[in-house]
Design brief:
Layout (H helix, E strand, L loop, with lengths): L7 H4 L4 E7 L14 H13 L4 E5 L12 H14 L5 E4 L3 H9 L4 E4 L9 H8 L2 E5 L17 H18 L7 E4 L8 H9 L2 H4 L6 E2 L5 H6 L10 H13 L4 E4 L2 H16 L4
The site of 6-hydroxymethylpterin-diphosphate (HH2) has 21 residues, from strand 1 and strand 5.
Length: 278
């Protein structure tokens, strides 16, 4: 029997922070730092103590140019961590039903699928059956090649139409709409200007009526905006600026590496928006 869960927006009050934990050798921002389960577990606890509402654990890098990994390899990387972090709210960053299924058995309450249910036809059933939360993200192309030549006539309307379609697909596959959040996929087949436009016109995505998640943290566009055309990562202060801007344009959840700093920055932005202190 699936556990009864509140709607996404009740479980994760805006603005909520999702802390990133990559148990990979090759992630662009923290690759190799948390491959040892002990280090990953300590970091997960730290992210929650700093104010993360949920920790997003990923075992496959999706940085531009990354090679795919097998379900077995993902499981080898995440299972020891999941087994040891009972009590910590977990999202599993995977596109594979086998990985999501094991993670949910071990307590994960969200599936973060960068393919928006296009990667593995069996994933929707895992989400529906266990009634877990789901993030549907937009990506043009695939990680290996997506930054080669991203092309849109109007990036915002294409991303919104895509996510509207994936939301309908998820609901048709038996997933409750109020479990789902939508993500424009910053950096996933988008040039710097396209990432900026997606944040500036985020209201078009918010208008679909589901909470919006934005992950701009440490992405290369931030370094490029600051004047380095070859940047592969962005700084923490640049990431904070992006998180606050996304929140001000309606984002409900921010996926970030620097949790404490983001929680504090968002607390001020939220106090300004509401004209109230916590
Ligand atoms: N970005 C990354 C990975 N997963 N999921 C969602 N929903 N939204 C994002 O913007 C997003 C994501 C890439 O960042 P990171 O996890 O730091 O790097 P890598 O993919 O190299 O592990």
């Amino acid at each position: 029997m699936a556990r009864e869960r509140p709607p996404f927006e009740e479980r994760f009050e805006r603005p909520a922070v999702m802390g990133v934990l990559n148990v990979t050798p090759d992630s662009f921002s923290d690759g190799g730092r948390f491959l040892r389960p002990g280090d990953a577990i300590d970091h997960a606890r730290r992210l929650v103590s700093e104010g993360a509402a949920i920790v997003d654990i990923g075992a496959e890098s999706t940085r531009p140019g990354a090679e795919p990994v097998s379900a077995d390899e993902e499981l080898v990387r995440v299972v020891p961590v999941l087994e040891a972090i009972g009590g910590i709210p977990v999202s599993i960053d995977t596109s594979k039903a086998a990985v999501a299924s094991r993670a949910v058995e071990l307590g994960a309450e969200m599936v973060n699928d960068v393919t928006a249910l296009r990667g593995d036809p069996a994933l929707a059933e895992v989400v529906a059956e266990h009634d877990v939360y789901l993030c549907l993200m937009h990506m043009q192309g695939e990680p290996r090649t997506m930054q080669a030549a991203p092309r849109y006539d109007d990036v915002v309307s294409e991303v919104v139409a895509f996510l509207e379609g994936r939301l309908e697909h998820a609901v048709a596959r038996g997933i409750r709409e109020d479990r789902i959040c939508l993500d424009p996929g910053i950096g996933f087949g988008k040039a710097v200007e396209q990432n900026l436009e997606l944040v500036r016109r985020l209201d078009a995505l918010v208008a679909l009526g589901r909470p919006v998640l934005v992950g701009f943290s440490r992405k290369s566009s931030l370094g490029r905006i600051l004047g380095d055309p070859t940047a592969t990562v962005g700084t923490m202060p640049a990431s904070l600026g992006a998180a606050v801007a996304a929140f001000e344009h309606g984002a409900s959840m921010l996926r970030v590496h620097d949790v404490l700093e983001t929680v504090e920055a968002l607390a001020i932005a939220a106090a300004v928006e509401r004209n109230a202190i916590a």
